[in-house]
Write a structure and sequence with these properties.
2 copies of one chain form a homodimer. In chain A, the strands form 2 sheets. Chain A has a 6-stranded parallel β-sheet. Chain A has a 3-stranded mixed β-sheet with strand order 7-8-9, with helices on one face. Chain A is built from 12 helices and 9 strands. Chain A folds into 2 domains: about 5-175, NAD(P)-binding Rossmann-like Domain (Rossmann fold, 3-Layer(aba) Sandwich), CATH 3.40.50; about 180-285, 6-phosphogluconate dehydrogenase C-terminal like domain (6-phosphogluconate dehydrogenase C-terminal fold, Orthogonal Bundle), CATH 1.10.3660.10. In chain A, β2, α2 and β3 form a beta-alpha-beta unit. In chain A, about 50% of the residues lie in helices and about 15% in strands. Chain A has helices at about 15-25, 40-45, 55-60, 75-85, 100-105, 155-165, 175-200, 205-215, 220-225, 230-240, 240-265, 270-285; strands at about 5-10, 30-35, 50-55, 65-70, 90-95, 115-120, 120-125, 145, 170-175. Chains A and B meet through α7, α8, α9, α10 and α11 of A and α7, α8, α9, α10 and α11 of B.
Chain lengths: ~300, ~300
């Protein structure tokens, strides 16, 4: 597996980590990164996330064998349009967005050959963002989901799969719609809830908030980590996976109201029964290898944002 | 600081860790533990959590200088009644329960001298429970809250504070009622929400649930850890801190409905504004020293329950 010229559009935690990991695996020749901000490009070059950094998506994709989009979901369509005129019809285009159906809808119409489009989503990340947050072991033993569309070439899928396997990920394929339903519950709803409870605390009076900080270790800390994730990306996720998120949120709210009622009426057996069932789910997650594989720490420079 | 004879009633994660930590600090003479189950007593002895293990609370407290209750909140009253006839009037009584006003209400009437009662709550723990889960560094740099009642002797508070400081905790004092309001938001509500979302997943069809396990790394994993906590203890917490939990849950639900509405109507700016504010809360938690101080791993034998 070797990519002679790789174009990366956007250069944050995920894309930057992909660059570092491919470089470490010796799986890539030249990496050209595209970012709008001067400081981002300078930092990406400094950290060795790319060989060249440019501001224009069309310039970045010129001559590239594989292009990976790493901008927030809502920006993918515009970027695809902007890079179109210099994109080779043979180039494979992929992405790392956390929603898939909307990205397919926004990006595919702008590509010279949609058979070369292999949408993807590495299920990995930290609460940090930007080029400083990138580190080369981010994808080790993590899942990566590819969501080829009807027209996608099998050969293009094989190539993108090989790229993710080269950086240590375990690759699955499914439809974009199925991806969005699964991630609504495993990722989008947990983030939504974490953002909400941390927001509830943000609205407390100053004194109460200070106490929350002091005693956060009792459970709240995990929520603050999740709710520190990139705001732009998460805004786009919720706006673009609206139906699946609202459906899962509806189920959650029903369950929460039932639990609230059990507490109000002192129904201890109902509480005990639920709390026992949820322990079994933890075992399921551990058996599937998704716990106790904590993300490695990001680089020290970024450990305390 | 040295306790000549310490009685521990109940011997799980918290109390067992206290025993190991006091032993390590050389701050204790004889430790007598009380547990109902034969297997628990045997295991506590095997792991060196106590010198003697008995089934009868009265026998355990006989001659003890300090007694610490570590049974679930709902059982504290009964235990206090059961130990009464052999408890010295000079003995200091404390506990480690996650709710305080109810424990004060249930325990104080049974004590020979309520001036010797110093209710406490070390804000520390893991999702594991039982004597196998205990480890000696659990309280290092964690907060411990003491909630003396009106009658409590200052000298008794000093003594219990010294015990927690000997095992590395940072000790604060506040009223039982204030404790319960603070913990409702920092600990009880996060647990309630984690239990709910993990329960929502437990109710999914088999195939969907299996997929959740596979892709849990996207955010769900943290919730499963929280929702694997001891069911009996958490049932008692919710039943006994009902008003404060329902009040905080009410605020949370209002905020969740507002967010749901913003998603449904595509109000990106509202989402972005909230997600930016929550990042600031993360910084507050980190500055208060409550993040990046992850609990050390429990003993290897218990690492995968």
């Amino acid at each position: 597996m070797r990519i002679e010229r790789l174009a990366l559009i956007g250069i944050g935690l995920i894309i930057g980590s992909l660059a570092l990991a491919l470089r470490k695996a010796g799986a890539v020749g030249e990496i050209v990164a595209c970012a709008r901000g001067d400081a981002t490009r300078a930092r990406a070059l400094e950290r060795g996330l790319c060989d060249r950094a440019v501001a224009d998506p069309a310039e970045a994709v010129d001559g590239a064998e594989l292009v990976v989009l790493g901008v927030p979901p809502g920006a993918c369509g515009d970027v695809a349009r902007a890079m179109r005129r210099r994109l080779s019809a043979e180039a494979i285009v992929s992405d790392v967005g956390s929603v898939k159906a909307q990205i397919v809808r926004d990006v595919a119409p702008h590509l010279p050959d949609r058979r070369r489009f292999v949408p993807g989503h590495p299920v990995a990340g930290t609460e940090h963002s930007g080029p400083d947050a990138a580190f080369d072991s981010l994808f080790q033993n993590r899942r990566c989901i590819l969501t080829p569309i009807e027209d996608t070439d099998a050969a293009a899928v094989v190539r993108v799969r090989a790229m993710w396997e080269a950086v240590g990920a375990r690759v699955d394929t499914m439809t974009p719609e199925h991806h969005d339903r699964v991630l609504a519950i495993t990722s989008h709803l947990p983030h939504l809830i974490a953002y909400t409870i941390v927001g509830t605390v943000a609205d407390l009076e100053d004194e109460a908030r200070t106490e929350v900080f002091k005693y956060a270790a009792g459970g709240f800390t995990d929520f603050t980590r999740i709710a520190a994730s990139d705001p732009t990306m998460w805004r786009d996720v919720f706006l673009n996976n609206r139906e699946a998120v609202l459906e899962m949120l509806g189920r959650f709210t029903e369950d929460l109201v039932a639990l609230q009622r059990a507490i109000r009426w002192g129904e201890g057996e109902k509480l005990f029964e639920l709390f026992t069932r949820t322990r079994a789910i933890r075992r399921g997650v551990i058996e599937a290898g998704q716990a106790y594989q904590r993300q490695p720490a990001p680089p020290a420079s970024n450990a305390r944002p």
